[in-house]
Structure formats: structure tokens, C-alpha cells
Design brief:
Layout: H1 4-32, H2 37-46, H3 55-58, H4 72-82, H5 105-112, H6 130-139, H7 142-147, H8 152-155, E1 156-158, E2 164-167, E3 187-188, H9 190-193
Antiparallel strand pairs: 1-2, 2-3
């Protein structure tokens, strides 16, 4: 029969052997891939995906399929139709140019920038301004919040004078969301959007 001290030693040795075996298996797995564990951690850190910034970082011009799915026009058509009663999004800009799945935010703003005079509280030529559409649509969106980890800086930037800019184009950024180019291409000043 083992004494308490001998049991303690046996358990300690068994735990030590189990830990050594686990470490050996982990190192062997890393070596099979041609990397040590430190290199694997460094590679995982380097593989961090940059945050999506700018409207067309998510709403890709042309969409993801032949139907233009997730392009800005597809979103507008889909949401307008969801309003029921046979509603359809207009097919052309105020000047008559046709909208298509390549249309960008500047096109949207022709009708959806905030209205003035009899259009106050609406879009310039639309029943809603862009900000009244996209802020609730994104802030209450499960994919935007949970899958893409979206936030204010997904769509906006703060300009040198402290005003908010709308990022109308995809912004190339590092893993922290810092833009690679300044001034940011496609950044629209408030005077151009609202």
C-alpha cells in the first residue's frame, strides 16, 4: 500500500508525463505543417481580416451574381418591393440616366440627399433621405453587427475639421481599419450628402 507521500509523487509524475505528451503532440502537429507554434501564432495574427469600410466594401458594384444581389440598386429594389402594394424603385436618375447594378452612392444621393423647402424631412426627390434609410437598416441588421462587426466607421470617417464624412467607395485599410491612403478616395463631405 502506498503512503500519502508516494501517492502524491505518482500523481505528480503521471500529470507531468501527460503534459509532456500533450506538448510533444502539439509540437509534432506544428512541425508536420512545417511550423513551430510561435510561427503558427504569428501567421494567425497576420491573417486577421481588415474591417470592411466604405459602402462598396459590402455592396459590391455589379453585385455577387447576375441579378446584382447586394449591390446598392438591388438593395433599393428589394427594400422598396418589401414595402408592399406593388411598389417599385425608380429605374432612372432625375436627369433620366438609367440606374444599374454598377450605380454608386453618388447616384443614390441625387434623390436621397436631404430635401429642402417642401421636401424637408424627406429626400431631395424621394420620400426618404439616405441617412433615414441606411442608419436603421444597418444598426438593426444581424449580419452587419454580428457577422461583419460593423459600426459607425464602417461607413463614416471623421475629417480633419471634425465633421463626419460618408465613405462612398471601398476603403483599403489595415487590420485595425486605418486607411492606407489619405485623403480617403470617395469620402463625401456633409455638404455633399446632407
Amino acid at each position: 500500500m502506498l503512503t500519502s507521500r508516494q501517492k502524491f509523487i505518482v500523481v505528480g509524475v503521471a500529470l507531468g508525463l501527460a503534459a509532456a505528451l500533450a506538448l510533444a503532440i502539439s509540437v509534432a502537429a506544428g512541425n508536420e505543417a512545417g511550423q513551430n507554434p510561435d510561427d503558427q501564432l504569428a501567421q494567425a495574427a497576420d491573417a486577421a481580416e481588415a474591417p470592411r469600410r466604405g459602402c462598396t466594401a459590402c455592396h459590391i458594384a455589379g453585385g455577387i451574381d447576375a441579378d446584382g444581389k447586394y449591390s446598392l440598386l438591388w438593395e433599393a429594389q428589394e427594400r422598396t418591393a418589401a414595402g408592399g402594394e406593388g411598389k417599385q424603385h425608380p429605374a432612372a436618375l432625375p436627369g433620366g440616366a438609367p440606374l444599374n447594378f454598377q450605380s454608386g452612392v453618388a447616384d443614390c444621393l441625387q434623390c436621397h440627399k436631404p430635401g429642402v423647402d417642401d421636401q424637408v424631412g424627406k429626400g431631395a426627390f424621394a420620400p426618404l433621405s439616405l441617412r433615414d434609410i441606411v442608419h436603421p437598416a444597418h444598426l438593426f441588421s444581424t449580419p452587419f453587427n454580428e457577422e461583419y462587426h460593423g459600426g459607425c466607421f464602417s461607413c463614416h470617417n471623421v475629417a480633419n475639421d471634425g465633421t463626419w464624412e460618408l465613405l462612398s467607395q471601398k476603403v483599403n485599410a489595415n487590420e485595425k481599419g486605418v486607411p492606407s491612403k489619405r485623403p480617403i478616395p470617395g469620402a463625401l463631405r456633409p455638404s455633399e450628402t446632407w
